[in-house]
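Crash report, auto-generated. Payload:
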Amino acid sequence: MTELSFYGFRPPGIEGESLPGRLIVLEATDGAGRSTHVALLKEWLEDEGYAVLDTGLRRSDLAGPGIQRAKGGHTLDPITLNLFYAADFWDRLERQIIPALRAGMVVLADRYVFSLIARASVRGVSLEWMEELYTFALVPDLVIYLDIDVEQLLPRVLSSTGFDYWESGQDFLRGSNVYSNVFESFVQYQQMLLAEFRRLAKRHGFTVVDARRTVSQIHQTLRSVVDDVVRGMEEWPAGSTGTEQLHVAHPDGDAHDGHDGVDVTRSERAAPSG
Amino acid sequence: MRDDLGLSGRLFIVEGIDGSGKSTQLNLLHKWLISQGYLVVFSEWNSSPIVKETTRRGKKRRLLSPMSFSLIHAADFASRVHSQILPALQAGTVVLADRYVYTAFARDAVRGVSRDWLNRLYSFAVKPSLSFYFDTPLAESIRRIMDGRPKLKYYEAGMDMELSSDPEESFRIYQGLIKHEYERLVDEFQLVRMDATETLIRQQQRMRDLVRPHLSGVMRFDGGEIHQALRDANLLGRYLNDAGRLPPP
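Recovered output after restart:
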């Protein structure tokens, strides 16, 4: 089960000690195949009988639309933009992720706080401030980092969406001349970002998966690491019953505190350290 | 909060519970500073155009849990600091703010958000030259609010905290909690306590006396040239006067 453990303080309104679901995070830069692998894992897990919620950045009711609008105008300073993202993240944590975990689902998060921290940090926002900001985040059961180099990213990005304004760091980088601008800044930006991701992977003990291989190879590796984490979910934790699933499955429902004061079995796999 | 930026402007802020009279006093100070020729930028709580839409959305649909409330207000504040307050202070003007970080500290802390986290969250804020706290007996400030405004809004009355199902009762309890939190902040951050039961003119005199020493060396707008231009053109400068930019000749 997911222990209700936070990187820093427990935010107000979140009750209980543990949740019967599992929180699994995939982190990587754009073009590393993150979304593809979330989709494949979701299908596989559902085939195995697990209820799955997938969630990604900017999908909150509260702040999602505001971020889209602000990014369109390129008008926000980095601190404001990051606070917007933090509001979006919190809204999803509180209203989607935690209720799903309470209901015993597997939550697949297509990026988590680490992408936000890495992107802000390369833009000159204090790393310390960013990590402090996200101390209200729930510690996941598993964080997978899809490790890749810029050389492998280039063909993938070129064959799909092309160089995105933000994913090339053009909001803060400028190439040496007008013609090489986008390409140069893409390479420079992604190198900075990858270095930051690797630093975070080490610091927070991510499970690093080599994403330079074929999709099918990567998927097989992901299955085995995910399998270790979801194993044992067929049994409700001691002291709780399946009936509470009915109470808490409603996304707007109140936080259910059925686990309060109940001695529950710890999962064999410890959450990554914060 | 930052005070290492070597800013040539000055920042004065007011805090206090609703109905403490802080906005009235800040408005009077604003007019006085303009009449003295200072350039003044005025910043209001929760007013950034970029964040407003999200705040409105959250309030209307009651999506604001304590943490969302806290983060959205922090975003609004950050946006005002970076687009309005900081540039004005760098340029050397006087900035007046009706509510500042202490409002967030008080409102969020009573909703259970970690004080320590709030402190670090707002570490990007510019430290004010002078912060005024308008201290009013709770009953008096509530009377003032209830006199003029019969219908309380959901978040204004602290209804999200489920203190009472009656908006008026909820508002009373909520304001009491906020006031209690302010008492801590006055000590921790050395806010200047203003006795808001004194006459308006006394309060304003005291405010000006406290502000005056901070104004030496601050940029002033020289209106001399415009007086000459008005005389030459045989105009009164009526609109300029309305804008408060020009002291009467």
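Post-recovery validation: The mean pLDDT of chain B is 88.
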